[in-house]
Amino acid sequence: MTKKAVIVFSGGQDSTTCLIHALPMYDEIHCITFDYGQRHRAEIEVAQELAKQLGVAAHKVLDVSVLSELAISSLTRDNIPVPGANSADGGVPNTFVPGRNILFLTLASIYAYQVGAEAVITGISETDFSGYPDCRNNFVTTLNNAVELGMDYKLRIETPLMYLNKAETWALADHHKQFDLIRVNTLTCYNGVKGNGCGDCDACRLRATGLNTYFENKTEILSSLKYKLNLN
After folding, report:
1. What whole-number distance in Å separates Cα of residue 113 and Cα of residue 107?
2. Coil, helix or strand for 32?
């Protein structure tokens, strides 16, 4: 029986790391990228390039731009400035897009049903996250139960990065010998700058801090990663 998975794929560090991690585990991988009227549209092109480069079975770009009409965020409104790395006030940042992961994971689950996939894979994490409520494990578990009940279909929503920090995410890319691809070709920056990014936004801060930590403690972090994910 062909093992299939659907990956929620933005072309960023986390989703691309999930893709390279999943490739050896599944016979057929489908990527789904959402065009939700996001501020940095370059991510769609980056996702298309990476999906082609990594040889996935299919890559669908789905128009869900209605989300940008409803969800007010600096990632859906050009007139709302993206906050700098040191501007957090402890609350939910204005880069949070309300309902985004609810919508994305629900639609990805429908797609998984149609192609006969056993898993939906997403790169969300509650360890090194920006205070987004939809990046927590209890949210994913609850939604997973709901989509299984609503479609009467056995499906796993997998979150391989859920308990990894950014340094361990870099280590995972290195473990799969795709460190340079992740560092150079992914787009994580809230301002839409590929690779190392703008260096100022919170996404770039998390990425750079994790990278520096990995360089400083590479052996320990690789060992911790292999234990957490039971890697050979």
Report:
1. 10
2. strand
pTM: 0.93
Q: Is 27 exposed, middle or buried (0-12, 13-18, 19+ CB in 10 A)?
A: exposed
The C-alpha atoms of residue 143 and residue 102 are separated, in whole angstroms, by: 8
Residues 67-104: tens digit of each pLDDT = 887 766 777 667 677 776 554 555 777 778 788 899 99
Instruction: Give the HSE-up count for residue 162: Cα atoms under 13 Å, Cβ half-sphere.
Output: 15
- Cβ atoms 18, 7 nearer than 8 A: yes
**Residue linked to tokens 């049903």:** 113
Alpha helices in 134-197 (DSSP H): 137-151, 166-175, 179-185
Q: Could you report the per-residue pLDDT of 148-165, keeping only the tens digit for each?
A: 999 999 999 999 999 999
Residue linked to tokens 């050979």? 232
Buried b (16+ CB within 10 A) or exposed e, 74-109: bbbeeeeebbebeeeeeeebbbbbbebbebbbbbbb
